[in-house]
Write a structure and sequence with these properties.
The protein is mainly alpha-helical and about 180 residues long. The protein has a domain of about 120 residues: Orthogonal Bundle (Arc Repressor Mutant, subunit A), CATH 1.10.10. The protein is built from eight helices and three strands. Strands 1-3-2 form a three-stranded antiparallel β-sheet, with helices on one face. Strand 2 and strand 3 form a beta hairpin.
Length: about 180
């Protein structure tokens, strides 16, 4: 299942946003956190002050649950999560070391680890969450992460998503203000 990007250049290009001041909501949350855990702010991870961060969809845990539900016993969602952690806010991953990718995804047994990782990449590609292109003679050279909400909606239209999961997903999407594609 292939999912294409937007029809215009603005949708397909990288958009750099200027940093906005914190919202009232964010300031209230920070004040509550500091009240509950005084003096801990300097010990917390903050993506704008640290290197090595990425942005992920807030619905990702539910999407990971769906992936594992659709392919029971394969533990595929760890590979999908690792790919999200490797993209740099552009939904694009260059596969530089399959063994490192496999290990990071939890496949640590030498000899079997790369094969397990490749099998899971194939599964998430079959489900439509990613596209894979070769780099030279390597089959897994580049991976593109598709918008997970679009993929989920397509899977739902195909009857592959249970009502229970869909209910939890749409509830979470509503909580975070996400608009689901139609």
């Amino acid at each position: 299942m292939a999912i294409r990007g937007g029809a215009n250049l603005a949708e397909d290009s990288i958009v750099r946003k200027t940093r906005r001041p914190p919202t009232k909501f964010a300031l209230r949350r920070e004040a509550l956190r500091d009240q509950l855990w005084p003096g801990q702010a300097a010990h917390l991870w903050h993506r704008t002050r640290e290197d090595g961060f990425t942005t992920i969809p807030r619905t990702l845990p539910l999407v990971m649950t769906l992936i594992d539900h659709l392919r029971r016993g394969k533990d595929t969602s760890r590979v999908y999560f690792d790919l999200w952690c490797r993209q740099v806010d552009d939904s694009f991953v260059q596969v530089t070391d399959e063994e490192a990718f496999a290990y990071s995804s939890g496949y640590t047994a030498p000899g079997r680890n790369i094969r397990s990782w490749r099998e899971r990449v194939d599964i998430i590609e079959e489900l439509g969450f990613v596209s894979v292109l070769p780099k030279g003679s390597r089959k897994y050279g580049y991976i593109l992460l598709h918008h997970p909400h679009r993929v989920v909606c397509e899977l739902r239209a195909q009857g592959k998503v249970s009502d229970a999961w869909w209910g939890a997903f749409t509830k979470r999407a509503s909580e975070i203000g996400a608009t689901l594609p139609t």
